[in-house]
Design brief:
Helix content: 55-70%
CATH topology of one domain: Rossmann fold
Oligomer: single chain
Number of strands: 8
CATH class of one domain: Alpha Beta
Strand order of the largest sheet: 2-3-4-1-5
Structural class: alpha/beta
Shape: globular
CATH superfamily of one domain: P-loop containing nucleotide triphosphate hydrolases
Distance between the termini: 32 Å
Largest sheet: 5 strands, parallel
Radius of gyration: 28 Å
Number of helices: 28
Length: 583
Amino acid sequence: MYLSISVFRYHRILISSPKISTHLRFLNTVQKTAEGLQRTQDAATTVYRIQERFDKFAQILTSPNDTSTHTAPKRGVDVTGQGPTMPTIFHDKDNLVNKIGRILWDSKSSRICILGPAGAGKTSLALAVVESLVIQTKYASRCFWVPCAEATSSILFLQLFCTHLGISRSTDDIFQDILVEFNKSSDPRLILLDNFETIWNLDDDTTQNLVNKILCQLSQCRNISILVTMRGVKSPCQEIAWKEVWVGVFDMETSRSIYYDFYPHSKGDPDVDELLATVGPIPFAVMSVAVIGRKRSLRAKAFLEAWQKARSRTVSDSGSSEQNSDQWISICLEQDIVQQNPDALLLLHTLSLLPAGTSIENLRWWAPRLESTTAITTLLDAALLVIKDSSDSPESTILFVPPIVRSFISSKGIPENVRRQVQEATCQYVTDHAHRYYNAEFQQCVTAFSAEDVNIQSILLDSTYRDALIPSEQVVEALLKYLWYRFDTNKPSIELAEHVVGFAISINNARYTAEAFATLGGTYLKLDNHHLAEEHLTNACQLFGKLSLDGDISRVATECRLLIADSKILKLQKILSGPQPIF
């Protein structure tokens, strides 16, 4: 009854309007939505949402200059990531810190690439630079850290890049959005692209071309300085004139200092220098053997014997820094305490699939049968796990495998049963926590999705690029729920929405294809592209029209019509407030 009265009331408003035909088309759209209510289980909520559109429509007609009525309803908040912390033990880098600091201080825009082998301390060096007094004086809070080790695809890289740099997507052209954001202020900014080799070395020409274009765009901004850490000997994007800094060579005195810092009781061990000469000047390897030695009270001779066994199984005997790091990871992995603890191996393989790590609390989702306490202790003792303490509670402590270890584990192959379990867990996590902005549980959804955002995208997208170990319908359903979450929290991603449409079409599922077009249309609406928004939303409505509408399908079909109404409202506002017609 209330809705019928509203329709009658707005008909009377329309009669006095100079653009009657335009408004009637809008009203007809909303009325068609109302007619679909009888097929909607959640009718009360939908009536309220349609009423919101009527109210907004009337406000625009009666107060066209009141801009408070011209924006879509706020549907959530953005959540930004936090950067890493400096290591407590840091050696022999002061000269490099000062060198890089001077370059950044003297130039308005610098391009610096820190190169070196795995485990050489490139990230530690970059963080020391960022936290130095000279950099804090120049850039203050305008230093941005992008954890490229978490970027397992080009789509995820774009998400991480925008999130950590505070870039709001306002158009369907990410390059334009980047330039708009960085041209808002002439203040200097410093961007740290950490572990950049992860995204740069993906076996995908499209990804490298996209990342190359973003770097070139950044390099054209006069107030932007770029600091890259990257495994290898060659800088990315040869169009940019990089200042390269090489990291990785320690002398014996520095290696000994690091070893003793982590294992004080080893002073006096006559075999320490031989062990360090065998390990090589790689900080990760030196710290790993020191940590293991301290926790297990092992002498250097025991490590030398393990090294000889590992070397005897290696085809190549080049002794390169990369090979040394791999061999020491093998030694860490082959310790009895690890091999005799199946839960430790399960935890290691599981966390190697989670690029952002996870909390102790959420670990039960990814590995529900895991005895986590002993597994965590074992991997810490084996120097294969890193923890990030939380001030909230011990359960919020973050567990993650260092990128160098995760890369090694992935290259050796993660058991299929673990990969299947993590894929299933991701879909279940999304399904159990997914709620729309009009549901009472929505804030719980935001909290849950924010905590595992990077992992959700990485695992689900990986399942679309390779043969999924679970039904493809399960993957696409989870991706669609995740896309609605991004829609409701004002974090639209054209790249992700288009990818999901393509995947839904590829598995030949009409129901999910229709919803995928709905999310794509909603994404374009968020970016103020009304033409493409209505094109995709109309396409979705037509596809839904061929299906049997019940339950969730009916709700999504109704959502399509509501989003078309939103688009009409925003276009109407532009008609009334500006001279150029939109229709």
